[in-house]
Amino acid sequence: xxxxxxxxxxxxxxxxxxxxxxxxxxxxxxxxxxxxxxxxxxxxxxxxxxxxxxxxxxxxxxxxxxxxxxxxxxxxxxxxxxxxxxxxxxxxxxxxxxxxxxxxxxxxxxxxxxxxxxxxxxxxxxxxxxxxxxxxxxxxxxxxxxxxxxxxxxxxxxxxxxxxxxxxxxxxxxxxxxxxxxxxxxxxxxxxxxxxxxxxxxxxxxxxxxxxxxxxxxxxxxxxxxxxxxxxxxxxxxxxxxxxxxxxxxxxxxxxxxxxxxxxxxxxxxxxxxxxxxxxxxxxxxxxxxxxxxxx
Length: 296
Known about the structure:
CATH architecture: Beta Barrel
Shape: globular
Radius of gyration: 22 Å
Oligomer: single chain
Helix content: under 10%
Number of domains: 1
Distance between the termini: 43 Å
Number of helices: 2
Low-confidence stretches: none
Order of helices and strands: HEEEEEEEEEHEEEEEEE
């Protein structure tokens, strides 16, 4: 059944592309690349503390193709950062790859048919550090994630409602969520909701995406997207992914940004302080200040 739905999704997507009106093509490209650096150096500092170095980069790129009543949007978001504190090794603090493609066909002023695909993963391995019980002052590290471990693919077919230019609602009663775990050790442990020993998991359900893109002030912008997915096998149990980004442009070269992400997925088990594992709300915030370059 799921294979038929995916084939139906692909058929409608390419049929919509082929059926656009023979109007002129409007192509818009936007993109920025940012570099961030922070350093603290201490020598004989009576108040205490540790020297540190932090590096980060953020890339955002978007291309919009309009022809007739159809709009095709492709977007890439990439972030990677790390820090070294004291004598510890350099450790990553941010790692995110998001690829998104969306096609919409307008059939009224505010409503559109939509086909949306979103892929998410990370670039580098992630580790959890713990004290070495045999060597005081030493640490052990356990691998908990990596490239395509996890990887997420979401395919959504439905409708868009856009009351204003700043906000849109995308409802997809036909939605597939695919989880990939390429690292066999993690797969054997049943990480990220896959069955033990399996490298992937497929769920079919409904998806709601609420997106906001608004200028808060003349030099401050806000982008936020709330993604809610519920599998038909466990309808009413909702997976949440809420991402927000505030950007304050200081001048042509410098800006400051605050990004947040909240995730809840009952199938992702988090190690607790008492040694048990349980589903929990995940939250991340990243505050950056640095150089910013326009790509186009």
